[in-house]
Amino acid sequence: MNETFALREELKTLPDAETVVCRCEDVRFADLKIVLLSRSKLQTRCE
Questions:
Q1: What digits encode the pLDDT tens for the residues 6-29?
Q2: How far is residue 22 from each of residues 6, 15, 18, 33, 38, measured CA to CA in Å?
Q3: How many angstroms separate the CA atoms of 39 and 8, rounded?
């Protein structure tokens, strides 16, 4: 099972804050992280 479901080496290093996610729009990973965190907060709030 470890061999079948082992995480590939390139996936073990997550992007850092300055990793460019979209060159066309000059979006960095830090920009996405802020949006994702704020959206996840909305999902946990009751209406």
A1: 888 887 787 889 999 899 999 999
A2: 28, 13, 11, 14, 20
A3: 29
Contacts for 18 with CB less than 8 Å, ≥ 6 apart: 28, 29, 30
Rounded to two decimals, the pTM is 0.52
Q: Residue 41 is inside which H or E element, if any?
A: helix 29-44
| Single-letter residue type at 1 | M
- CA distance linking residue 36 with residue 47, whole number of Å: 20
Partnered with residue 11 across adjacent β-strands are: none
- Token reading at 41: 């907060």
What's the pLDDT at 23? Answer: 93
